[in-house]
Amino acid sequence: LLTIKDLDLAGKKVFIRCDFNVPLDEFGNITDDRRIRAALQTIRYCLDHECAIVLASHMGRPKGEYSEKYSLKPVAKRLHALLHHDVTLAKDVVGPDATAKAAALQGGEILLLENVRFEPGETKNDPELAKKFASMAEFYVNDAFGVSHRAHASVEAITHYFDADHKGAGFLLQKEIKYFHKLLKKPTRPFMAIVGGSKVSGKLEALINLLPKVDKMVIGGAMAFTFLKAAGLEVGNSLVEDDLLDDANHIVQEAKRLGVKLYLPVDFVVAPEFKEDAPVKYVTYQEIPADWMGLDIGLASTRLFREALSDCQTILWNGPMGVYEMDKFARGSFKLANYVAESYATKIIGGGDTADLIQRVGVDDEMTFISTGGGASLELLEGKTLPGIAALQVDGDDDE
Ligand code: 3PG
């Protein structure tokens, strides 16, 4: 895999695919610009090398046509503020405005195309659209880890229009690959995976792939109830995926066979309904009342997990322990975030919800690496090859 530093791009036109898919509030203000900041190193490197820079990104899931709601206007503004450099936003993606502006672009100038998903061909990996993107530049750099699990035109198809020495990974993509590679191939042991979130179905493949690689595994969040029910316990009205009880049992058996220490929560914060202002009780796992549901793990569980992680050298965390968006059900995730932060291990945080919760707790600086990809990092944990990364690879590579 070539990286941006291997490319002879000084003074040249470079197309950089970024993932600027950032959350916006109801007024269109960016509420978390981490993904934009994560792309700055690559953009600055290209500025330092006097490149003419064409930036491309998607935002949200528009239906293949222009929609003001999904415009990259807020991104252009934030980029300008962070870079202290002019950023021109094209009115379209590969239409007359973008094409003319890209053609006229000079070294040291930055053009941001409109949301690539305004073009219906983007999500179809359309070669014609990819060709239009490619015709805008001499080099292609992928720095969009968060969308590298999508075979889309500006991620995958576009790579076919550049010679091997004219395409490569930006600094962010490189960093993401490096950390996940080390984690999955040669972690420093003991290695603990903390897996949470609401559904086993969303994490099943990741659990199965991780199990032979880890020494300890914590299963938290509502996922735990499927495991508890599979073990014959009463879980009241808690979320359970009945069709996955066998899979849960299989994972428990596999853990035993492999000698992996499996940890489940031992107490919960329960409520009669899924509501911020619902009354709550703190109960052990043996005492979940019928008609009540578990919405967070309890203090005994966080202490148990803290004990378990205390000797670990590598910690991977993907998925919250409870409904952390609601104050009453946030304590389990927040406490665990602090415990993980205190550890001297290499601490890798999966993107999406877990990254968000780490930021809310304010311990992001304590983590070794926080991924910018939710779906993309999960697919790496599942052992999959990401099309956006595979497309940049050359024979003999072992980058994933
Ligand atoms: C993400 O937010 O996970 C990425 O930007 C990919 O977005 P998508 O799930 O809409 O493809």
UniProtKB/TrEMBL annotation:
Transmembrane segments: none annotated. Pathway: Carbohydrate degradation; glycolysis; pyruvate from D-glyceraldehyde 3-phosphate: step 2/5. Substrate binds at D19, F20, N21, R35, H58, M59, G60, R61, R117, R150. It catalyses: (2R)-3-phosphoglycerate + ATP = (2R)-3-phospho-glyceroyl phosphate + ADP. Its EC number is 2.7.2.3. Pfam families: PGK (PF00162). GO terms for molecular function: kinase activity. InterPro entries: Phosphoglycerate_kinase, Phosphoglycerate_kinase_CS, Phosphoglycerate_kinase_N, Phosphoglycerate_kinase_sf. Keywords: ATP-binding, Cytoplasm, Glycolysis, Kinase, Nucleotide-binding, Transferase. ATP binds at K203, G294, E325, G351, G352, D353, T354. It is found in: Cytoplasm. PANTHER family: PHOSPHOGLYCERATE KINASE, PHOSPHOGLYCERATE KINASE 1, CHLOROPLASTIC-RELATED. Belongs to the phosphoglycerate kinase family. Monomer. This is Phosphoglycerate kinase. The gene is pgk.
